[in-house]
TrEMBL record:
The keyword S-adenosyl-L-methionine applies. CDD domains: AdoMet_MTases. SUPFAM superfamilies: S-adenosyl-L-methionine-dependent methyltransferases (SSF53335), Winged helix' DNA-binding domain (SSF46785). InterPro entries: COMT-like, COMT_C, COMT_dimerisation, SAM-dependent_MTases_sf, WH-like_DNA-bd_sf, WH_DNA-bd_sf. Residues 37-111 form the O-methyltransferase dimerisation domain. The lineage of its organism: Eukaryota, Metazoa, Cnidaria, Anthozoa, Hexacorallia. Its EC number is 2.1.1.4. Gene3D superfamilies: Vaccinia Virus protein VP39, Winged helix-like DNA-binding domain superfamily/Winged helix DNA-binding domain. Pfam families: Dimerisation (PF08100), Methyltransf_2 (PF00891). Catalyzes the transfer of a methyl group onto N-acetylserotonin, producing melatonin (N-acetyl-5-methoxytryptamine). This is Acetylserotonin O-methyltransferase. Keywords: Methyltransferase, S-adenosyl-L-methionine, Transferase. Residues 133-345 form the O-methyltransferase C-terminal domain.
Length: 365
């Protein structure tokens, strides 16, 4: 594996920041108490509190922010003090007045003009995953996703109804992009893929992982294969030549991993956050199609969370999220090994990579 001198890896997201975002699913202990925090963060983002502080020429009082928001002073003060406790705002006293400013973490991840902004993903979580997870009880009783009960429409109808403008589609793709940006670099660096000269990222959306691959493997040609709505928007997320000097090695093709005749040929395939979205029969179909398309000795890289073998730990909650939202599930390393060997793959290896994503690699004999 060869890493070029010009490689520019995006900033990793602090785990503390991620826990705040996912607090409605992943609570953390503070002074021996379990505290959900994310809704306060979601509300602040929806109200653009961090952007209003960013655009101000100096720290602002609660009165200033209340005026900017046309909100209630007492309620706004409570929210801002909560954000201080969450280390998203800083607060100091000037005379008899308390003033607020963004913390470094908020400026980096919670403002619109930051290249590391996570606002699109936060909006998706707040408007979609937060309410659908509220029907977990029904999902457990029924063993089904909860789109109909939550939004009055199926998952298949949700995207065309909600993402019905180019701006809405860009926000959705932006959420997918920022959620996997640093994790993609961590995953492709964890496994030595230098033996492969061609790669196809199936369901690769706007190419986030593909651009990471071409940085670490400058001789690899990578095709991102996805449905037309994703491919048509990919140019909006192309990195600069300075950030990704080998970006010409990345191309896009319209295709569907359920239709093997549309899958481009490659020595290496990637499935990043794909398998956990689908039921067992659909997972079997995807893996069967990949196996058929691979040449002998070809590789498959899967980027997903790996559950603990004993099914303990906070990561397991994401399997419940898959239950309510996609009908899929997360898997442990032994479960991945069994699944992949069932389809003929060999040399299965699983590596812990990052707290949002791990890596599983295998080969075709």
């Amino acid at each position: 594996m060869r890493e070029t001198k010009k490689t520019q890896v995006p900033s990793p997201m602090p785990e503390k920041f991620y826990r705040l975002i996912d607090g409605f699913r992943l609570y953390f202990s503070e002074n021996c108490r379990w505290v959900p925090l994310s809704k306060a963060l979601f509300a602040a983002c929806e109200l653009e509190v961090f952007d209003k502080l960013r655009s101000a020429s100096s720290p602002q009082s609660a009165d200033d922010i209340t005026t900017a928001l046309s909100s209630d002073l007492d309620a706004t003060t409570r929210l801002m003090d909560t954000l201080v406790a969450m280390e998203l705002l800083e607060k100091f006293k000037q005379g008899d007045q308390w003033l607020y400013s963004n913390s470094e973490m908020a400026t980096k991840f919670l403002t619109k003009d930051s290249p590391d902004s996570y606002l699109d993903m936060i909006a998706l979580i707040n408007k979609t995953l937060y309410p659908i997870f509220g029907n977990l009880e029904s999902a457990v009783l029924e063993g089904t996703t909860q789109w109909k009960k939550t939004f009055g429409m199926s998952a298949e109808d949700w995207f065309p109804n909600v993402c019905n403008t180019e701006e809405a589609k860009l926000r959705f793709m932006g959420a997918m992009h920022c959620n996997s940006l640093y994790a993609s670099y961590a995953a492709v660096k964890a496994i030595d893929l230098s033996a492969y000269r061609s790669c196809c990222d199936l369901g690769g959306a706007v190419g986030t992982l593909a651009y990471a691959l071409c940085q670490f493997y400058p001789e690899m040609k990578i095709t991102v294969c996805d449905l037309e709505p994703a491919v048509s928007l990919a140019h909006h997320f192309r990195p600069s030549v300075e950030a990704c000097p080998n970006q010409a090695n990345v191309s896009f093709a319209v295709g569907d991993f359920f239709k093997p005749e549309t899958i481009p040929k490659a020595e290496l395939y990637v499935l990043s956050h794909v398998l956990h979205d689908w039921s067992e029969d659909k997972v079997d179909l995807i893996l069967s199609n990949v196996y058929k398309c691979l040449p002998s000795g070809g590789g498959l890289l899967i980027c997903e969370r790996i559950l603990n073998e004993d099914k303990r730990g906070p990561t397991l909650i994401f399997s419940l999220l898959m239950l309510v939202s996609t009908g899929g599930k997360e898997r442990s390393a032994p479960e991945f090994k069994h699944l992949l060997e069932k389809h003929g793959f060999i040399d299965v290896q699983a590596k812990r990579v990052y707290f949002t994503q791990d890596a599983i690699f295998c080969r075709k004999m």
